Each structure stands twice: as structure tokens, then as C-alpha cells.
């Protein structure tokens, strides 16, 4: 089953992410696919703030690779070069218990659960198309 959303601007993208966040229950995995600048981090940040409170500080995990928020884990796998590193950073463990948001999830495809929610983000300028599979 696929759902498609056409969004115009960051406010519509954030509104979509807030509504989407309210559907998530642990344990679940959300794999965020999209090129650089498509809004993967902004969607993850909005999901986290929706579930943990607007005052939650949500830095990008680009350099730390993972940020944890008491029941929500946010991974950025862009810099992971080998699948064996996924165990070192705890991914197989947290996907069993947390709401797990993963940017650049392709390297982890062999360990992702069957029921992973795949969110594909494409677009130009301020317009985004989000496809959920």
C-alpha cells in the first residue's frame, strides 16, 4: 500500500510530520529516503518534537550518528561504510524497542524489520512529494 502527499513549503511539511508522528507507536522503524536537502532531518526533528515536546533540543545526528530521546532513536547512517558498524552503534537493539527514525537507511536494509515504514521524499524548490510504503 502506498500513500502520496504533495506538500508546498516547510510549514506543510512540518504539519504533515506532526500528523504522521501521532500515528507512531514503539517499536517501529521509519526509514527516511531522499537526496540531500529534501528534508529528512526536518521531518525527523518535527516527529521528535511532536512526541517529546516542542522545547526538545534536536541536533542533527550527522556527526554523532545517533541521538536518543527516551524511547525515540534518530540515526543518520550517511557516514556508515560497512554494515557491521550498525551493531556497534546499537541499531539492531533499538529497532526492537524504540520508535526508530533512520536517515540514509539503505546500508541497513538487511536488518530492517519487514514492517518498516519507508518514507520517500522528492521535490524541487519548496515543493515536496512524500510517498509512504
Distinctive features:
133 residues, 4 helices, globular, magnesium, tRNA processing, single chain, alpha/beta, seven-stranded mixed beta sheet, 7 strands, ATP-binding
Distance between the termini: 6 Å
The major pleated sheet works out as:
7 strands, mixed
Beta percentage is 25-35%
Rough outline: globular
- Count of helical stretches: 4
Question: Level of helix content?
Answer: 25-40%
Q: What does this entry show, briefly?
A:
Helix content is 26%, strand content 29%. It is of the alpha/beta class and 133 residues long.
Outline the structure in words:
This protein has 133 residues and is an alpha/beta fold. It contains four helices and seven strands, in the order E-H-E-H-E-E-H-H-E-E-E. The chain has a seven-stranded mixed sheet with strand order 1-7-6-2-5-4-3, covered by helices on one side. Strand 3 (66-68) and strand 4 form a beta hairpin. The longest helix is centred in the first third of the chain and has 13 residues, at 9-21. The mean pLDDT is 94.
Lay out the secondary structure:
Blueprint: E1 3-8, H1 9-21, E2 28-33, H2 40-52, E3 66-68, E4 72-76, H3 85-88, H4 91-94, E5 99-103, E6 117-124, E7 127-132
Parallel strand pairs: 2-5, 2-6, 4-5
Antiparallel strand pairs: 1-7, 3-4, 6-7
Amino acid at each position: 500500500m502506498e500513500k502520496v502527499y504533495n506538500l508546498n513549503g516547510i510549514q506543510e511539511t512540518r504539519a504533515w510530520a506532526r500528523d504522521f508522528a501521532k500515528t507512531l507507536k514503539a517499536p517501529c522503524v521509519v526509514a527516511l529516503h531522499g537526496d540531500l536537502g529534501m528534508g529528512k532531518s526536518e521531518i525527523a526533528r518535527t516527529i521528535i518534537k511532536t512526541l517529546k515536546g516542542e522545547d526538545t533540543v534536536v541536533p542533527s545526528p550527522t556527526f554523532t550518528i545517533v541521538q536518543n530521546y527516551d524511547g525515540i532513536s534518530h540515526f543518520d547512517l550517511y557516514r556508515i561504510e560497512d554494515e557491521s558498524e550498525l551493531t556497534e552503534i546499537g541499531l539492531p537493539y533499538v529497532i526492537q524497542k524504540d520508535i526508530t527514525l533512520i536517515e540514509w537507511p539503505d546500508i541497513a536494509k538487511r536488518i530492517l524489520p519487514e514492517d518498516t515504514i519507508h518514507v520517500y521524499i522528492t521535490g524541487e524548490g519548496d515543493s515536496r512529494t512524500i510517498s509512504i510504503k
